[in-house]
Every structure is written in C-alpha cells, then in structure tokens.
Write a structure and sequence with these properties.
The complex is a heterodimer of chains A (287) and B (141). With 287 residues, chain A is of the alpha/beta class. Helices cover 61% and strands 14% of the residues of chain A. Chain A has a domain of 200 residues: Pyruvate Kinase, Chain: A, domain 1 (3-Layer(aba) Sandwich), CATH 3.40.1380. In chain B, strands 1, 2, 3, 4, 5, 6, 7 and 8 form an 8-stranded mixed beta sheet that branches. Classes of the chains: A alpha/beta (287), B alpha+beta (141).
Amino acid sequence: MSSSKEIVGKIKSVQNTRKVTRALEMVSASKIRKAQDLMQASRPYARMMKQVIGHLAHANPEFRHPFTIEHEEVRRVGYVIVATDRGLCGGLNNNMFRRLLGEFRQWEEQGVEVTTVIIGRKAAQFFRRLKVHVSAATQDLGEKPRLEDLIGSIKVVLDGYRNGDLDRLFVCYNHFVNTMTQRPTFDQLLPLPPTSDEPMLQNWDYLYEPDAESLLDEFLTRYIESLVYQATLENLASEHAARMVAMKSASDNASNLIDELRLVYNKARQAAITQEISEIVGGAAAV
Amino acid sequence: MASTIHCDIVSAESEIFSGEVTLVVVSGELGELGIAPRHAPLLTRLSPGQVRVNLPDGGEEFYYISGGLLEVQPHVVTVLSDTAARAGDLDEAAALKAKEEAEKALADRSAGMEVAQAQAQLAQAMAQLSALQRLRKQLKR
C-alpha cells in the first residue's frame, strides 16, 4: 500500500511542476507579441537615421568621421554582448556564449585582445567565471528596455574607439527569426560599413546649424545606440520565444511522466487488491 | 496638398507622430524654428522643449521632447527625438555608472561564492533536520 501512496505523491508533485511550466509558457507567449511590437516601433528611427547619415556622407566626402575610418592594425576588439536577465529559456544564452568563446579564441590566436560590454545578468554571471576583460555592464532591463539604460555602456566603447583603444566593435545578440528559431548573430558596429554607393539623385545639400561635422558626430552616435537598442529588443523577443518553447517541452515531458506514473500506480493498486483477495481465499480455504 | 508637409516625430523607442501638417514649430539649438511646406533642406540639433504641429483641420498638437535632431526636406520634416535628457556630462555619468556596474558584476564573484557556500550549508542542515525527524518518527512507533 505504501508504494502506491508514494506514487500518488509523486504524481501530485509532477502535476504541480506542470502547472508552473504551463503558466510560464503562456506568459511568454503573450510577451512575445509585446516584444515584437517594440521591435517594430524602433525601426523607423534607425531607418531615418541611416538615410540622413547616407546623405551626409555623400554631401561631405572630404570629411571622414573617426567612426568610419578603418584602423589598419587590429590590436584590440570590443564586443557588446546582449544576453537575457533571466534563465529558463533553453540553450538560448549558452549557444551564443559558446560561439562567442570560439571567436575569442580565434582573436587570441592572432594576438588580439578582447574587451567586452555585457548587457543582461546571465552574461554577467557567465563572464564572471572567465578571464575576459569587462569594461562596462548593464543589468535588469526588464520587459521594456529603455535606451537610457544603454547609453552609458555604449559611450564607454565608443570613446574607446575614438581614442584608438579599440579597433573593431561588434554586437552579438540572438536574432529573432520566428518563434521556433533564434539565431546567435554577430554584427560589426565599428568601423561603420561604408554606405551604399548609389548615385545621388538630388544635387542639393542641407543647411547645417551649427556645422556638418558636429551634427554628423551626433547622428553617428545616436545611430550606433539605436543599433544596440534594437539588438536588445530582438534579444528580448528571442528570450520569450525560447522560453515558451522550453516550457512547452517541459510541460509535455511532465504530462508523459504523469501518464507513466499513473500506469504504475494502477498496476500497484491492482496487485494489492489481488493479493488481498488471494489472502482471503487462502484464509477461507484453511478454515 | 501643396499647403501641407509630411511630419514624422520618431524616437528610438517608438513612433510618436506621423501625418500631414501645415506648420511645425520646434526650438532649435540656435533659436525657434517654424517649418512651413517647401522649407529649404535643413539639419539641426534641437534643444529640449515643445514641438507644435498645426494640423490641416486647424487643430494643434503639442509634444515635449528632451532634445534631438531635426531634418527638413521640402516635403518631409523628421524630428528624431531623444528619449532621455542628453548632455555631455550626463552621458559621462552614465558611462561611469556602467563601468562601476562592470566592476560590481566582477566583484560579485566573492559574493556569489558566499551565497553558494551558504546554500550548501543550508542544504546540509536541512538534510540533517529531516533525518532527525525521520528518526524521531521511527522511535515513536
């Protein structure tokens, strides 16, 4: 009898676990939509920025901003690593970190130093254990990341590039392909890839107040910031999608486990009944 | 159509306004600007303040922006608004904070260890307690 009681207890505990994973799954499902909306909303800004920067670059070919100049010798590279704040999202972070470590090793073989900026608590926890130089960190962005929270970290690396401390800058995040697929992605931020060389149709130029150089600087800084911000949003959407899938498979596993346990329980119960009957029959026969 | 100009007000986080307007009034870095249709192309920095748009139906709408950039083309005005107050020293402070955060995250190594140790000790104590309880039950029987 005690064994069937034990099984009932186990079934109950698995059922409780399933309740939790189901709830997490549904929460994530609704958050994906919100994260996608945020992604959508941030796109016009970056698009407009890009247009204006393209125009500025064409209109002032003699002026080269430090961000567009390629450093010939690469001695030090920077990575902006966007990860999640919370866990329980499958292999989302670990897949990206594994690929990152591969890249780091390659740079190391070439004798290039690597410095990182980490966004998200999981990245902080991971890189704490490694001997990687971390120059800035941001955590706890929440469900609605604000650009404000990222400005400081981005400034650290932008200044690094300006002073010549950094020769390349990358951002890595999980690209949201769809709900089932998220791909770790590495994009180069600096030097800015040259804007496409389509011939300018208009031959007019802006009036600049106060002057083109300082405006271009401002535009480029904002542009890089908006790229990192978009990476953060994309990573957020990926996080929720990955969590939903992970929790769904956890719930399915729990259901399977419950089915199996129930079978075992029924068998144990039947065995107990059979035993009792045979005991009674045996007892009656003895009398 | 000739008497209106398309106006977009966007920030990095969202699209704030988009539509046809007859006049846009913003406070540029070098002074107040009123932008009517067919304004000359212009790029300027905006100081924190109000953006007023006059709608074709006579209505007005006001938005507050904490600075940003303005792009004007003959038929399009784009206000690229900042989401936060920006200034050189404010940015500097944010950068410092991010650096501190990094140091904290790394310094937490010891804190993390302590937590792990405490957890291990707690788990041990719990195991001992439950073992004691089991023993007591058996003794009662």
